[in-house]
Design brief:
8 helices; two-stranded antiparallel sheet; globular; 222 residues; 6 strands; alpha+beta; four-stranded antiparallel β-sheet; binds 3-iodo-tyrosine
Length: 222
């Protein structure tokens, strides 16, 4: 059994004014984030992505199991393989697997089965959730709340991408098990999200959509 070990926590210790100002400026920054489907091929320093992934890795997780792996794909051959496999699945999705309601809901976003961004974006981050860990003698040890944990980490990843001045798309070419095969992932990993990252193509357009008002997403019990 491992012993409990507690250490001092050093909170940020901000005054009310600083907190208000930081909450407000963080919101102002985050509300400018948009999903981008057309990327410039311009590359960026690998250290940027390293710190973005470190930020994601600082997320809370069930029993602190940190049940995630972030694969960074910049290899053109692998990006091409991923695009081909994703387009194959998306062809099926757009031609029968998605309901009419679903296709109608996607109309304003202008999506289709072509996924050029999977080759054009300088990097793809493939997020995997680890459903268990291999321990000694090939035995399995279960992880907990994997989807919640990896979802939180991915949210922090997306915020960090935006904060760094990069753009991304949360892409889900379902089913996504082709990613486990192409990237030769171990048996305990399941593809969770495919996130192309980079700078937007020049003059990129985004759908004219709005976010819900605070009064429609917050219910205050006083
Ligand atoms: N995975 C498909 C379809 C799609 C589904 C949802 I829900 C979206 O918000 C966007 C797209 C695609 O990526 O085209």
């Amino acid at each position: 059994m491992t012993e409990n070990r507690f250490i001092d926590y050093n909170p940020m210790k901000l005054d009310q004014e600083e907190m208000r100002s930081r909450a407000s400026s963080f919101y102002e920054e985050m509300k400018t984030r948009r999903s981008i489907r057309e990327f410039s091929e311009q590359t960026f320093h690998p250290e940027i992505l390293e710190n973005i992934i470190r930020t994601a890795g600082s997320a809370p997780s069930g029993a602190n199991k940190q049940p995630w792996t972030f694969c960074v794909v910049t290899n053109p051959e692998l990006k091409r393989k991923i695009r081909m496999a994703a387009e194959e699945e998306e062809h099926e999705n757009y031609n029968g697997r998605m309901s009419d309601d679903w296709l109608r809901d996607l109309k304003p976003l202008g999506t289709n089965e072509r996924k050029e961004f999977l080759e054009n974006a300088p990097a793809l981050i493939v997020v995997f959730k680890r459903i268990f860990e291999f321990i000694e003698d090939g035995k399995k040890h279960q992880n907990y709340y994997m989807s919640e944990s990896v979802g939180i980490a991915t949210g922090m990843l997306i915020a960090a991408i935006h904060h760094a001045g990069l753009c991304c798309l949360t892409h889900t070419p379902s089913p996504m098990n082709f990613l486990e095969k192409i990237l030769d992932r171990p048996l305990n990993e399941r593809a969770f999200l495919l996130i192309p990252v980079g700078l937007p193509a020049e003059d990129v357009l985004v759908p004219d959509i709005e976010r819900k008002h605070i009064d429609d997403i917050r219910i205050h019990y006083i």
